[in-house]
Amino acid sequence: MFSICKSGVFYLRAENELAIYLESLGAVKWINDSPGLAISKYYRLPNSIMNDLQLYRKVVIASIQQVKLQKLADELDKKQRIKEMANLTIKHERLLAKVEIHNVKEFLAVGPQNSYVRLKKAGFTVNINIFWLFIAALKNKHVSLLTKNERKQALSVLNISLTNAGLKPVKEES
């Protein structure tokens, strides 16, 4: 939402440079008189802007672009949430957060085998199925689509990591 019209008064959404620019032209920040509404980023435009159609158009377009960019940034941030990955849910996101893995970037850096090892070392009861979910999530495919070869290679790497951490290796699947 880039604007609000209340009681015949037009308020335009603005942040950062646009907000400073509007204030320099005489725009006044909307004071929150409506509990529950997040309106701190809206500005009442002075008549000098409203009467100058070219300037009015310019600031409205700038506001719309700000909103679009913010929405895009929010969507990109959302994609950095572990729960947005294939096979994973908020349950997995919270579990990984307990071992200091808070987003997709950190999950990629740590890797599925080391994530599993961290969980085991921290005392969480995890089985091989969660490891398969991690592997499939990083391949962006459903866990049931992991091939036997992919599982065999991943299990081999996991067992090396478990052994290096002083933990018992996982038995190979039949």
TrEMBL record:
Pfam families in alphabetical order = TfoX_C (PF04994), TfoX_N (PF04993)
Which intervals hold domain TfoX C-terminal?
A: 79-153
Q: Which GO terms describe its biological process?
A: establishment of competence for transformation
Q: What's the superkingdom here?
A: Bacteria
Where is the TfoX N-terminal domain positioned along the sequence? 1-66
Task: Name the chain's protein.
Answer: Regulator of competence-specific genes
Coiled-coil ranges per UniProt: none
